[in-house]
Amino acid sequence: MTDPALDAAIAKLTADGAAPSVIASFIDRFNRLASGETGYVHEADLEPLTDPPMLADQTLDDAAMQALAQTAVVRLNGGLGTSMGLAGPKCLIPVRDGLTFLDIVVRQILALREAHDVRLPLLLMNSFNTSEASLKALEQYPQLPVGDLPLEFVQSREPKLLDDTRMPAAWPANPDLEWCPPGHGDFYPSLYASGLITKLLDEGFRYLFVANIDNLGAVPDPRLAGWFAASGAPYAAEISERTDMDRKGGHLAHRIADGRLVLRDTAQVSPDEMDSFIDIVKHPWTHTNNLWLDLRQVAAVLDANEGMLSLPLIINKKTVDPADATSPAVVQLEGAMGAAVEVFDGAQAIGVPRSRFLPVKATADLLILRSDIYEFTDDARLIGRASSPVVRLDPDFFKLIDDFEARFPAGPPSLVEATSLHVTGDFTFGKGVVVRGDAVLSTDTPQSIPDGTVVD
Questions:
Q1: Distance separating alpha carbons of residues 325 and 164, to the nearest angstrom
Q2: What is the dihedral of CA 55, 60, 65, 67, to 10 degrees?
Q3: pLDDT in tens, 86-119
Q4: Quick one: residue 35, left, alpha or beta (phi over 0 = left, psi -120 to 50 = alpha)?
Q5: What is the pTM of this model?
Q6: I need a surface site. Which of 45, 146, 236, 409 has the fewest CB within 10 A?
């Protein structure tokens, strides 16, 4: 007996040209939803991760350089900057010296090629929303392509499902809103469908380093490549010590039932267990989403499973039109790329310094990257001069990128002597403002901070 809602969704995916691996992945998530799976990972089932191997203990030797020479890089670039009020790709937001996230990532790759005499291909996992603009931006780097390898593959999309019936949502006013991304867990079936695994292996690339486009600390490191190659693991995740800024980010832990590493994200935490989830002492390692894959072993697993991985389910509840709270309630069935840590036998994790994890999820993170906390080097790296402060900006006035830019017309304040900066209300910062210690700014009316002011 078939499910009419599932049949309708499969028909919609097929008409959209979805690859068999993408359809198989959707069917797996739908069946999990239909079986009553909540997607929760419960605290009682976990044991905190302790004492992982550390990058600081690895050496730079000939084996490490050989591993880097067999490494290709994928950056996840499917996101629009909608949370910051943008209609275009997030990767095109300027970060330093007029250079965007994409510019900086490309320049890091080119610098590594020159420094280590390696090919180091860069591929983007784009979405239908980001592909055209991102490829256009790459035209200024004619030296970037490696052989016949493409610069991108495109992730899939899936139907939003009505919350009450699970039928595919219809929204004639804007049919694009009937579709959603299936989370970055779609990396595996989309990579498989692209044929790139075979192409990379044929070109002599054994290992894949994967990271988010907005994490400018995720520079391929030969010591990590060497450690991963020597480990023989099919899969490894980079983890870093959690800070106050990471309380709501995902973390790795051991599942008590079988000892496997598992990833727990915010969406997989029941409301009554949120306190334990955000406890950075109990769960001290944050998941950076910097991953290392052995393409031979990954290909074997994908070949055996129709090109898909049965990842833990993430149920994301929204309205079909995110800007209209009165539009029909829908569910989006998602998976996290990092959740594959529990799928691969022998998967490992390695501790890395915070400098390898510089995510930009909000304008506060962008402010820190633009500030004097970081030195921007000739090889396009961001080198920390001091510990990063905790920065919280009032979302009513700083959440959207245009509002944010308007309130720092002369650039960011100095943060190198700051421990924290909490801004509540509408403040516009003048030139040469210096923040020291634990600074708190609060106002009920628009205020301007004069040039050269010291805020402490």
A1: 16
A2: -30
A3: 878 999 999 999 999 999 999 999 999 999 999 9
A4: alpha
A5: 0.93
A6: 409
